[in-house]
Amino acid sequence: MSHSIEFLKDEVRNGFYISTPVKQAWAETLDVLGEIDRICRKHDIRYFADWGTFLGAVRHGGFVPWDDDLDICMLRDDYTKFRQVADKELPSQFTIHDYVNKKDHWLFLSRVVNNTTMCFDEAYLETHNNFPWLAWIDIFVKDYLYDSDEDEIARDKEILNI
Fold first, then answer.
1. Which stretch of DSSP H or E encloses residue 125?
2. CA distances for 144 relative to 30, 77, 115, 147, 148, angstroms
C-alpha cells in the first residue's frame, strides 16, 4: 500500500495531536491489513472491524488517536479458511502469533505481524514507512454457541483450563 507524504505528516485530529511516528505506525499497520484483505478477497473470507478499530471508525473516522494497532474479527469458519491459506499467502517475513505458531502464546486472539524482529536496515525502512518496529493486526475469532447447554458448559470449562 502506498501512503502519501501528507498522510504521514503531524496533524490534530478530533482534538488530539497525532505525530509523524504514530502516523508511520498506522501506515505500516494498514499495510498489514492490506495483505490480510488481499488474502480474504482472494479466498472469499469475511472479516469485520472489531473493538478499538470499530470504535475508531465510528467515533474518530479512522484510528483511535492513541491506538497503534487494528482489531478485526472472523467467524470460526472464516478463520479456519484463513489459517489454511495464510502461511502460504502472506509475505515471507510475516508471522502469525497463535497457539499453533508461537510457543507460550497466551492471548485469546491471533495476531498477524509484519516481521519477526525490529529492523533498522535502511532498505527495509524505505519500504516500510520508515517504521522499524513490529506492526500487527489482532484477529478475534467469533465462535457460535452450541445448541446443547452441556456442550457449551464443556467448552467454557475447557477455556477456563487453558
1. helix 122-127
2. 29, 10, 32, 9, 12
What's the pTM value of the predicted model, to 2 decimals?
0.85
Distance in angstroms (rounded) separating the CA atoms of residues 46 and 75: 8
Other Cβ atoms less than 10 A from the Cβ of 89: the count is: 16
- Grid cell listed for 78: 472464516
Of 41, 57, 50, 100, the residue nearest 75 (C-alpha): 50
Percent helix, percent strand, percent coil in the chain, to nearest 5? 45, 15, 40
Per-residue pLDDT tens digits for 80-103: 999 999 999 999 999 898 877 777
